[in-house]
Amino acid sequence: MFKKAVEAKAQQRLSGADRKKLKRTIRDRFPRASDADIDALLPPKAEITVSKFQNRVHVYGVEGGFPLFFNVDGRGSEIYPTVFALWELPEMLPYFMLKGGEVSRFVIGGADLMFPGISVAAEGLPSFSAGEPWAVKVPGNPAPIAVGSTTMSSAEALKAGLRGKALRIMHYYRDLLWQSVEGHYVPNSGFLEDVVLEDPSFLASNQPSDSSEGATCESDVQQSCVNNENTEGSIDVNGAISDACAASMQNDSENAAKEITTDASDLKSTANVDAAKLDIELSSLSIEDVDSHLDRCLLQALHTTVKDKDLPMPGSTLWSNHVLPCRPSGITLDIKKSSHKKLSKWLQAKTSTGLITVKEDKYKKEAMLISVNRGHPEYLQFKPEKRPVEKVVQAGDSAASESRSQKALEVVEVYKSSVHVNPIFASVGADTGKLYSASEATDIVFKYIEKENLVKQTNKATVVLDATLCDALFKGAIKKGSTYPTEIHKKDLGATFINRMQAHHMVTRGGESVVRKGVLKTVQIMTERRQGNKKVTKVSGLETFLIDPEALASELQKKFACSTTVAELPGWFIALSV
Predict the structure, then answer these.
(1) What is the pLDDT of residues 341-383, one digit of tens each?
(2) Within this chain, do residues 142 and 181 fall inside the same structural domain, yes or no?
């Protein structure tokens, strides 16, 4: 789940209703945790944040603290605690005890847990169902090192002879979620030397040789324990480890237990220090300081992210999507800590200075940003900060990403000027023979509106149509006898303008790229029944996506063990006879 680096696309505070819902979900999901335990992890008066990642994972935690829970599908049905939360409440989840340090080495390396690597107590395998959250512990250490979901029930496991995958690991000690926490980053180069549960002297004295018992032991363990994307092995240490290996593993497990327990104590002390620093930081900001930060963030947003074409804009959108992202690092902005106390009052105060224009939506009962006075002295005197976007590329993933980019398929819809909109392009000096994206084309029509000053003064969300713009948008599209419109809403202007342009699409695969006129044609898949129960699948339209039908037919023939034929029709198609 956290093996590859994925950037968070959004981070926000939970509302009161969402916090209650989250606590109810945690209470139902983890009955071992009492209400007092949950309140200890998520204090009632603390701000709870959620980070939404591109792979649909949601990570919850107390603002300024460690991540405590994560949601796999973003819907709240599959929520798991992090190792940080389990170190605070080790008994929140039932756990599997590993047989030794050699097994834990692969678990904290990202491998799933197999039944042969689990130490089964004398009373037998505990009862569980498929899909339940379970933790993983090593002998002599109360701190869990991983958390995951069971792949089968205990009855199915016994029926299978305790073979196969027991736990699908979702999160483990020192994965990328762990490394994302400040102060706990572990360089990849020293990862095994720091956390592998194995004595370095034991490895040095047991290098592979023709007659080394230690080499045989290590080789057998690696063959039976590793379970990753390329190997479907099992974590089995019974028959592969000799007595000497088992004694060394016991020492390694004890050393690892001390290390992880030490990290657990460091976690608690670090969390307390971070919380204390946060309290000091918030308390040190006076009301005047908060007001000053609010004004600077607003001006930064007006200069960088708030565009006239996006107006009118709800005040909540202005706050969450524009003002908050402009706050300095390490500063937490809370409108309640300011002299205005409410967002609407703050916006009205800025309206009184003439910087912006705000009106209340009588239907939504919300303040709406109508316009920005970009000639205001405060706006002109403010110099926005340049904040470059840093892109972190993992060294190990660079080759793989480059290989994927060479084979990746990219389809982009582009548009070209037509006879209808040529006067608009000519008026702003835009090239009529160039291809434009939807956003670029929309910018052109808004440049024309700004040049001709066509925004309605009494309603900034409406554009008054002059003869040129009216012909570009509606000439030939209005039935005879109908009246041409005299104005249009800003939110409808972009789509109407793009519909009057010539649609094209650009397809890129690797180093090959092609631009075709018209909308993108989809791939057609049909099935037919021939000669009794024989079925044929026909695929057409592959040329649109630069796919070689001969190569695809050969690949599908191997993949599905069937015969394939290629025939030239109005579109290439491949018939798969199954």
Answers:
(1) 888 899 999 999 999 999 988 777 788 899 999 999 999 999 8
(2) yes
